[in-house]
Amino acid sequence: MTATGDDPFVAAVKPLVDAMGGELLPPGEAGPDDVVLSWEGTDVVAVRLPQLADSLDHILAAMERKQGRPLAELDRKAKQQVVKTLEARGAFFVRHGVETVAGALGVSRFTVYNYINYAGEQRAKAKARESGARPRQDD
What we know:
This protein is mostly helical.
């Protein structure tokens, strides 16, 4: 980044852009799909957002860094939590999202679907507890 890198506004948005896997550019280099951020009427910085598939890879890498080890080395409960987090972030709307996550976790697609279903069941049980209703028992 050029001179705008010293701008306090740029410094403020940089962690967010980094977390999304985006790229900061001078406003003059913005393309038609980039987002130009203005502050007090002046274009300060442009943000180039990643493609959705790249975002998933970026999210998986960040989760791996947070865990301090490859996701495939996590225990089942931790893998279920990873899937729950990824589902909340929309990871499975990305084409081949389930396959990508399965590969990162070292499990089958079937297992990822089971984890997704398990997370849904947990949400339903929590919602039932909050409302005071009894969870439905399958026959």
